[in-house]
Amino acid sequence: HTTGDIRIHEIAFGEKDLWIVNTRFSCLCTLDPQYSFVPQWRPKFVTALAPEDRCHLNGMCLAGTPAKPKYVTCLGATDTVGGWRENKKDGGLLLDVDSGEVVARGLSMPHSPRLHQG
Description:
The chain is an all-beta fold.
């Protein structure tokens, strides 16, 4: 499957789909035989699906049965091209995918969240 330049940062198998952190388009996506990717979720503060790396979405963990994305990380709550670069030292966030709410903020370049003992 060819996705083109979407700058994949993390991949995980869910119940039926391969979930991808699509950093270039600031979204979580899955694959489809007819398209390079299918956007499934993006942070509330990202207002458009565009190849602009607006928040540097970069990490994801799956949870539940069936397994689906639960938490994601990004380097900033920004909605401009590369806006996250201005505050890399403490602009990072952990987001809950279901609610879209911020779980933790003030992180320095967070990547690859994982669940530990639930």
